[in-house]
Amino acid sequence: MVDSPIEDNHDNDATPARISRPSSVADHEGSLRQSVNVALVTESSSNIDEIDILISSEEEAIEVVGFASWLMAEEKAKQSLSALNTAIHLFRRVIDHRLPTHPLYSDALHNLQCALVTRTTHTGELSDLAESMRLQLEPHSGTNDIQHEDNTPSGQLEEDDDDVKAMERVANILLSEFNRSISFVVCDTVIFLLNQALPHLASLHDTRLTACSTLAEGLYARHHHHARSVTSDLDAAICALDDALKICKNEDQERELVMKVTELLFQRFLIAGNASDMEAIIPYLMKLIAQEKNAPDDMFRCAVQFQELFEDTGNINHLDTSVQFYRKGMRQLLEGSDDLTRWITNLASALLTRFKHSGQESDLEEAISLYRTGLKLQPSHHPLRPLTLNYLACALIAEFEHGVPNNILDEVITLYREVLGLLPLLDPFRTLIQISLANALCLRFSGENGQQSDIDEAVRIFRQVLELQPEKSSSLENVASTLWLRFQKGRQQSDLDEAVTLLKQALDLRPWPDSERFSSLNNLSCVLQALELTPSPHPGRCASLTNLATFLSTRYTQGGQQTDQDEAVSLVRETLELQPVPHPERFKSLDTLASMLTYRFERQCGQRADLDEAISLQRQALELQPSTHPDRVNLLSNLAVALSDRFKEDCVLSDLDEAISTYRHVLELQTSSHPFPHSILRNLAKALLTGFASRKQKSELDEAIYIYREVLELRPLPDPN
């Protein structure tokens, strides 16, 4: 047996021993071991450069590869995983004892990720790599939801700052010592020998696979001796593993190689932060899917990681990968496995998410089918049943929005009622389900066969939520929008009045710029939106201002006070301040304000400034609105009405001529399917009669008569008009 390399420490500047060229193949191994021993004694890799080995055949190259592989294995065998495990444990404790804003937290988190990847390279456990990726995706969650052995929630343990710093220092030392426990000289030796041998090995030779794999190990080990930011050895190691994969034909070996290249890509991502490395991981993980020996738990972790990665990046390829992991893992589950319901629910959620982004109906149909299957496996006392019921209801809502008949809402409402029946009264999830149920009731009420009982129940539910969340603007707006919906059919003035009051309260809770930066619910669509942080000024404020202005203006037209219309005008002006050019919604607000000013002019009989401003606003709106916009007809019609009104005030014929010209333009744009073409014709006829009265041109009278005949044809008896 050959002696192991000597490990005594000496100065780096010791004179290297020269190694003579071996006279035969049989002398290679002894000479190489001697040179390595000398290099280790001197702690200098310069000895390696002076090895003058002669490789003249494939047989000699195979012998050199065998020695290099043995040398690498000997060094790896001396590494202590217990030290690495201790480092990981200490990094976790630092994270547990410090908030994400603490400077120690981010360093410990990064080092924990690196340590987990390092452990994966030695154990082959996918769970460590999966955890490291999860920590990357959720950098501020850390491990703060872990329970310690004493059942004390992490994040609540108290440690002195000095103690925590000491823990991190010890962890860093242990990790560094582990990473550098393979001698730099050995790394250089292995890399040198294999680079000498590889040109003499056939491209598909089995030994070439060993050489490439071992070369990657040597490069990865040497990488830890460089500055953290230097990735040249990592780059070369990844290339070597790719070469090995091209040769590999054994499934077990292929899985090991795929794991290694995935680990190194993620390690490089942690160092350089290049998103391309995360993208490059996907095809390697897809190779893992093709292997039949993956444990379902590993598959589940990978599926979850890529589902979360999609939420972070929006890259649909990540979601596709997640779906494939779920499918593969489910095929490996034993029949009757307790985990099957968890797999089914997660796969269904991934498919539903993919449908919402890609619109593939087959994904939605499969998601609904899977949720139904999951419910059959979940008795009433099953802890996941409320969630699955909710997910199925969400999927059915998506199907309804995709054009499925209205009766699907009946099942949605039934599902939400069942969830509420299963949840304890104090469960925080109840509020979300109550809101979802109320929204579904609003949707059913808005359908062809909507029942008054649906909207009444929705109002009651939203009032209950408001009692629990009185200071939340979204709760106020939910009640307001539901009252507005009920008012549109029932015309109860009290509903409109209360809606206005509630919206005012909601606006008070969202000053501009909104200091809390909460987004609100869209109070007219009745679709729940997630609350999220947004930059100021608050983007939802424009919608709230416009909605409140609409309510006030409607109440004014229903016989309300002049102050309602004045306040509505002020609110739309504020909206315009929040929508500078080129805001895509500005032209709508300009048109709304112009219409309100025109109506106020007509009701007050003579505030000329309102009329002039209305015309100016309409012109601005037309300049901003795309010429092909479907609402352009309405804008032009409103401008023509305002011009006609102004002509009546000061009899300037240019206003009348422009009004007539604008009405003609409207008729050119108007399609035969327009619901009210007679109103435009009637207004044009009126303008022509006004022109005849001023100019006495018979052609205008003749055209007006002709148009009125057209209007009569469009409104046959028994039309009351």
TrEMBL record:
<feature type="region of interest" description="Disordered">
    <location>
        <begin position="141"/>
        <end position="161"/>
    </location>
</feature>
<feature type="region of interest" description="Disordered">
    <location>
        <begin position="1"/>
        <end position="30"/>
    </location>
</feature>
<protein>
    <recommendedName>
        <fullName>TPR-like protein</fullName>
    </recommendedName>
</protein>
<dbReference type="InterPro" id="IPR011990">
    <property type="entry name" value="TPR-like_helical_dom_sf"/>
</dbReference>
